[in-house]
Amino acid sequence: MEGxxxxxxxxxxxxxxxxxxxxxxxxxLLHQGLLKPAKNKLELALRWxxxxxxxxxxxxxxxxxxxxxxxxxxxxxxxxxDCEFGNAYNDIGMYYMKLGxxxxxEPWLEKAKKAARYxxxxxxxxxxxxxxxxxxQFSEALAEFExxxxxxxxxxxxxxxxxxxxxxxxx
Length: 171
Hints:
Structural class: mainly alpha
Radius of gyration: 19 Å
Largest sheet: none
Order of helices and strands: HHHHHHHHH
Shape: elongated
């Protein structure tokens, strides 16, 4: 892609290494809450080095704009590039949850649980637990939350939720 020009006329001459650096910078901007500059860097990074991580992070930015269908489409591209990247599966599930389609969310969250690469393994269990709680399926919710605790045993809030469910809905 050498020789491409940006809107301001700047000549781009990026290597794959620089594309990865753009992704790293974009993630840093996201952690600072700077969505617009992060979005610009992610779009540029994707032009030079498409990656599951970049698609998933860009989807996350779009979710702040309530563009959940677009975010889902980007996460699906992430899955096409790396079917073992669990974050994309979980995020698709979350966007369906935001859209109120819990049935559509479930299979994506189940895939997230099985993915080989995942930053925070407890997250799909937490999300499935939330789905079950919303349906008053307390034993199923409890099982999901207990599994999440295996990955995040120091989470006091989650421990409290588990204890409350056990007290109010004994098995």
